[in-house]
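With this grant's support, we have settled on a layout for protein records. A representative record follows, to show the layout.
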Amino acid sequence: MPTRGSQTRIGRTRRFIAPLAAALAVAAFLPGIVGRAVAPVFADNFETGNLLAWSETSGFVAQQQQVFGGVWAGRATVSGAPGYVSKTLSSPLPDVYLDTRVNVLSSSGTTRLLRMRTAAGGGLVSLRISTSGKLTIRNDVTGTVPASSTKMTKGAWHELQLHVLVNGASSAIEVWLDAVRISGLSFTTSLGTTPVGRVQVGNNSSATMDVVYDDVIVADALVTGDVTPPTVPQDLRTTSIAGNRVDLEWSASTDDTDVAGYGVYRGGTLIGSVPGSQTSFSDTSVTPLTTYSYTVDAVDPGNNRSAQSSPPLDVTTPTTDTTPPMTPTGLEAVAIGPTTVDLQWQPSNDDVGVTGYTIYRDGGEIGSTIGSGTMFTDTTAQPATTHTYEVDAVDAAGNHSGRSSPAEATTPAGTVLVAAGDICPTSPADCAGTAALVLASDPDVALTLGDNQYESGTLAEYLASYDLQWGTFKGLTKPSPGNHEWKTLGAQGYKDYFGTSFLTNGGTWYSFDLSGWHIVSIDSQCSSIGGCGTTSVEYAWLQQDLATDNHTCTLAYWHKPRFSSGTVHGSNTAVGPFWNLLDAEGAEIVLNGHEHHYELFGPQTPGGVASATGIRQIVVGTGGNCCYGFGTPVANSEVRITDTRGILELTLGAASYSWRFIAVGGAVLDSGTGTCH
C-alpha cells in the first residue's frame, strides 16, 4: 500500500453499472455517465497520518497497527460512543458510489459501516453489520430494512461499495462485497429527491465496535479495477553532478500490480520519465552554478500515481569541468558462484576527484560504485557462462574515463530452484502472475511453502484454481502443506492432488537431494500431525534424516516461520525443535510462507542471535494471496517487502547459493549471495 496524499487521482476507467430497469431510466437524466473515465469526487487512504481531509469526526483516528497496506489506516475503536468520519461534498450529487477497504475486528449489535446523508445531515441509506456478520441495508428515509442473508467475515479485509441513486420513487441502492454485486442488498426503492450531500464511514450513534478502514473513494461511477498507486519512491539522491548534467537515482517503488514507470520533476514540473525497470535519470538541461529542486513519483499500469518523493532533493551545479579521470587499471574478475562474480581494480586519478566507478558486463552497464571504493560484486551473472567485464571512472562533473582493459570470468553451472507460499485463492487469476514468473525462470525445481490452495485445499479447489496456473509445472514441483490444506480432514485434497510420493510412511514430510544439496520438506501444522516437539514422529524422522545425510549444504522449507515481523501470525515457537535440529547439523537456509509478504533474515542462531554460521530464513508468502503488513522488525530482519506478489529464485552451487526476489512484472526487489557452512 503506497504512501500518498489524501487526495488521490484514479487514472482508470470506471463504468456506471445499473442493472435495475428503473435506474437505467434515470440515466437519461444523467448524460455522459455511462462508460466515461472519471476522477474521484473524494479519496483518502489516511497516509497523511491525520483526518484533516474529513469534515467531521468522532471516535475515529489514523493509526498504524492495522492497515490494508502502506503505513496508515483509519480506525474506530469505541465502546458505547460514536466512531465515524464524515465528508461534506462540495456539491450534492444524486448518484454516488462509496467504496472502501474495511476490516471489522469486532462489533456488537447492529453497527453502521457506511452511510450516505443529505447535505443537512438527514439519513438516506445505511449499510450495517450485525454481531454475527450479517450485512443489511437500511433505507433511512422510510426506516425499512429488507431481509438479508449475506455475511461478511470479521477479522479479515474486504472491499465494500455502496451505490445510492436518489430519484424519488425510482431511486436505487446497490451493494458490492469484494467486487461481487449482492442481489439481496440491491433494489429499487423510494429515497425522496434530496441528493447525497455527505458520505460517512463508521457509526455516528452510540456503538461498541473496532473497525478499520483504508482506501476510501467517493465517485460518480462504479469503482472497479486497480485503484492503488505505487509506493512513493525513496532515497532520491545524486550519483554525479556536473555544470551541465545532474545524474539522479532512487530506490524502487512497489505496487499491487506493477510499477510501470517513474516521473522526474524539477521545481514541481515534470521534466522526464523512465520505465519501471529503471531507477535513474540524467538531467542534461541544467546550467552551471544553479540550484535545482528534484522529486520523483511512480505510476502503475492503471495510471495511478504515487505522491512525489519528499523532501525534495536540492542540487547546486558546479562550474564546468571537462577533464575526465584516468582510465582504471588492474581489473580482475573472479567467479565465486553460478551467478556471482567478484571484481576489483586499481584506483583512478582525476584533476578534481573521482566520485565513483561504472561497471560494464558484456558491453552493457550493470552497476556503479560511489566514492573511492574499487570493488564490486555482480550477483546477476548467468550460470555456466563466460562474462567480460570493464570499468570506468567518473568525476563530480560527470566526465567518464575510458574503459579499463577487459577481464573475463566463467561462472560454474548451478541449479535453479524457485519457491513461494500462500499461492492460489479461489480465483486462479490471483496466482497467474507468479506462475508466469516460474515459467520464465525455467527452474529445475519449484517448491510450494504451504497454503498452496485456498480456502480448504480440497481436491476440487486445487483443480479449479491451482492446477490452472501452478499446475502447469506440476512435474517440477516439490510441495509442502500449510494450515489451509489441513482444513480438509487429513489434508486429503493435498495428498490426492500431489500424490503419495511426497509422503513418508503416510506423514506429510519428506526429503530429497538436488545437485549436492539436501532438501527437506516439513509439515508445520503441529496440531494436526501429533505435534512438533522432541517426542513427535516428525521430529524423530527429521533427526534420523539429518544424521544419515552427508551433503555439505542443506535447505529446509515449511509453512509457519520460526521468526517473523508480521502482524497477522508473527513468530512461531512450535517449530523451534525443527530449527534446533537443522542448526545443529549446519543447515544453511529455511524457507517459509504463512505471512503474506517477503522478509529476509540474516543468518542467526535458534535464539535469534546473529551468527555467520547460523541459518538464513526467508519468508516468501507472496505466491498470490496478497498481502500482509509488518509490525516492529524483529532481530536480524534485513529486508521487508509487502504489497507485492512474487517468487524467490535460488541458484544453488556446489558450496554456495544466490537469491533473487522477483516481483510480478519482472522487477528484482532483493538479491544476495551466501556460502555453505
Remarks:
- Residues 1-38 have pLDDT under 50 and may be disordered.
- The chain has four domains: 21-219, 234-316, 329-410, 415-675.
